[in-house]
Write a structure and sequence with these properties.
The protein is mostly helical. Helix content is about 70%, strand content about 0%. The longest helix is centred in the N-terminal third of the chain and has 23 residues.
Length: about 170
């Protein structure tokens, strides 16, 4: 019986944990490399305010409810203005927005009349329940796209510049 107890089954190789560090290093380096590549691709695909506005305007073409359509188009333009010119636009009235944008050095000043008419038309549809025909909706989107394309080439105004202009115009009025 002793001979039966002496026979033992074959075991797998014994790994020493001190020698198995390299797989963790390879996985860590691969994860860092992947994170670096993903971040570079995300930066390369950064969308400008003008591109974002044009996409939003294109998406609004399928909206047939006048109030939802005008809100969508107005939000696209207001978000574009905020991103491109550093003026907080989404929560301001049309008059407040136009007043902030119409300083002498503003690239939007040349488009004051068109922007005012466009935003006024949006306000009519949003607040006065003005019915928009298909031609009205098409014209509003075309007008908004024209505004974005015309002002997209203009240099963006930073928040510091806008603040200094506001301060200087307030100081000059006092």
């Amino acid at each position: 019986m002793n001979s039966v107890n002496d026979i033992r089954d074959i075991h797998g190789p014994i790994l020493h944990h001190a020698e198995a560090w390299w797989p963790y290093l390879v996985i860590g380096v691969a994860a860092l490399l992947l994170a670096f590549v993903v971040r570079r691709l995300a930066r390369a695909r950064a969308v400008t305010p003008a591109e974002r506005a044009l996409r939003a305007l294109d998406a609004s073409r399928g909206v047939h409810d006048p109030e939802r359509f005008s809100t969508s188009v107005s939000d696209a333009i207001r978000t574009y203005v905020e991103g491109a010119f550093g003026v907080h636009a989404p929560r301001r009235t049309t008059e407040e927005l136009l007043a902030d944008l119409m300083t002498d050095g503003s690239p939007v000043a040349a488009h004051r009349e068109e922007l005012g008419l466009f935003l006024g038309f949006c306000d009519l549809a949003k607040y006065a329940r003005f019915a928009l025909s298909e031609a009205d909706r098409t014209g509003m989107v075309a007008s908004a796209e024209t505004f974005v394309r015309a002002t997209a080439k203009a240099p963006a105004r930073g928040n510091a510049t806008a603040a200094s202009e506001t301060t200087s115009s307030a100081g000059g009025a006092a």
